[in-house]
Amino acid sequence: MARDDKDPLDELIVDEAKEADKAILAGLLKGHVELTKTGKINFTETFYEYADWKKIMIYLLARKAISLKKLGADVKEATMPVEIGKAILVSGDTVSKRLARELKGFAEKNQDGYFIPNYRLLKCRSKLEMKDKEEK
User: Fold this and answer.
1) Which CATH number fits domain 20-135: 1.20.1270, 3.30.310, 1.10.10, 1.10.1200?
2) What gap in Å lies between CA 102 and CA 124, rounded to an integer?
3) Which range among 9-18, 50-59, 88-97 shows the weakest confidence by mean pLDDT?
4) Which residues contact 99 (CB under 8 A, 6 or more apart)?
5) Domain residue spans of the chain
6) Is 35 helix (H, G, I), strand (E, B) or coil?
7) Which of 11, 21, 30, 49 is 20 to 30 A away from residue 57, measured at CA?
């Protein structure tokens, strides 16, 4: 391969340090949540009617927004299933099951808990849009 030829495999490599696309993130959250300046998440009236996987995804995306905007002094982006469950009113076991099933390939886990990587925002949008079409 000549020096000027680009390796076609380079197109498959994602940058894990890539910044979040705030426009996509805002679009994913709009109509589902409001965020306070202290980092509190206020859910819309219809939020609790959503499927559990969707509530979890939206909650994790909201934590990402809070983290990016530095709204809550003690709020980290990643969180554990028990905390997610308390926030969205489902059991921690249910959250763990949904993370392992419907959200496998969307959420990742680190030492602080689960989060959605920045490079997966488009994938989240696709899942939410696809499921919304199926439900109509």
Assistant:
1) 1.10.10
2) 11
3) 9-18
4) 56, 81, 107, 114
5) 20-135
6) strand
7) 11
DSSP helix/strand/coil, 76: coil
The amino acid sitting at 78 is: A
pTM check: above 0.70: yes
Distance CA 71, CA 89 (A): 23
* Helix, strand, or coil (residue 110): strand
Which segment of 22-26, 27-31, 64-68, 131-135 scores lowest on mean pLDDT?
131-135
User: In angstroms, what CA-CA distances link 19 with 3, 72, 117?
Assistant: 29, 19, 10
The H or E element that residue 54 is part of is: helix 52-69
Residue 127 Cα distances to 26, 37, 83, 123, angstroms: 16, 29, 23, 6
